[in-house]
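During the no-cost extension, the postdoctoral fellow (Dr. R.K.) reprocessed legacy sequence entries with the updated structure-token encoder. One reprocessed record is reproduced below for audit purposes.
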Amino acid sequence: MSASTTRLPEGRYGRSSDERADHKLRIAAVVLGALLVAMMGYFAWHYVAKNEISAEVITFEPQQDAVRVHLEVRKDAGASGYCTIRSQAENGAEVGRADFRFSGDATRIDKVVTLRTTSQGTTAELLGCHAD
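Re-encoded structure tokens follow.
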């Protein structure tokens, strides 16, 4: 007597349900991956292209009740906005915070601003710049 097999011949009746499910999962993963890459690209472009004002602290000079801060601001021509600066004491407590406005047609502004503090500040930190 010979043993009969119940297995179907390979490739004769199409794919199995497991292969179809794997194919659908691959398609879903590719679509979701493409959407994720597109979203990351959009947010990166939005951050770079729409950020009209940026700045950096070049130097700062602590004084008894103020900190003199040399800022370099880069912005689009005609854009206006403000940059927020804060100062902290030696123990880490915030002793001063202020917004400094920038406007006009210049695209690069070097400006020395004075941040008044409640006690002697040891730092000058740029928290960020925002366009109006």
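The chain has one helix and six strands. The chain has a mean pLDDT of 86. The remaining legacy entries will be reprocessed before the final report is submitted.
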